[in-house]
Amino acid sequence: MASGIPYTPKPATDIFTQDTDIDRRQCKRKVPMKVLALGLGRTGTASLREALKELGYSDCYHMMSASVENPPDCLMWQDALAAKFDGQGSFGREEWDALLGHCQAVSDWPAVAFAPELIAAYPEAKVILTTRDVDSWHKSVMKTVNWRANDPELKWVSNFDWGAGLYYPMLRKFWTCFFHDDFPNRGKEVYKNYYAQLRAIVPPERLLEYRIGSGWEPLCNFLGNKVPDTAFPRSNDTDAFVDRCRKRNHAQMMNVAFRALVVGVPVIAAAVSASMAVTRFVPGFGKQFVTVVSA
Hints:
It is a single chain. This protein is mainly α. The protein is 55% helix and 6% strand. The protein has 13 helices and 5 strands. The chain has helices at 45-54, 63-69, 73-85, 93-100, 115-121, 134-143, 145-149, 152-157, 162-178, 183-201, 216-223, 238-279, 285-294; strands at residues 35-37, 60-61, 105-107, 126-130, 207-210. Strands 2-3-1-4-5 form a 5-stranded parallel beta sheet, with helices on both faces. Helix 3 (73-85) packs parallel to helix 9 and helix 6 (134-143) packs across helix 10 (183-201). The chain starts with 34 loop residues before the first strand and ends with a helix.
């Protein structure tokens, strides 16, 4: 637990979000890791995730695995970030197997912050680099993930909601560390350096540079899979990303409101019951209580 952040269970009052509550720190590897899809987010990683799952690589990890599917995953990402960027503790193969042990593939951020570590931890896995024109990529990220990392609504709800309280600090930590706390001005530089680094450390026979528009054939040829007779999946465009995030915020706000209602009503009822009991022994107290409450 390099980050020092303890696990806390999901409140029973979180009825407006369908998150699972699995403490990955207690997990072990169940399936072999076969594919490291280490292209940066907004290069088609969500579409690639769906494609890999259709090819039978189950599951494929993605930022959505932590943000909207199982928020406690964020604790282990915090552990990994603390180990790499703060020098607190260690995070090796055992920890990766705990966090990603249910997956045969991993993609998207925050995994990309640990690309060298994942490549070393899983030398048998093939590496896919989804690519995109850097200027187009930067514009897309500015409208989506950079917006999300600075979303005041998410920041506010993270103070009260279980899932948001796990996700937002992790997202901010990753975004600050990976992009040097200045994505607008340094994002393109990080992009270019990142891809250059991975091209240098991954053997050519283990690497596929891939653009989503290329379709099934180059992907299946690289992985050794039969080409499906279905259209290649496309998902998570800019509008869909923003719409999903706003709906998530609002659902989490409903969790907060419902919890306040569930907790608040019994407290008020207990206070009223106590005041009624006291009036039996303290003359005039009930009249004073009513006056205070009315005020």
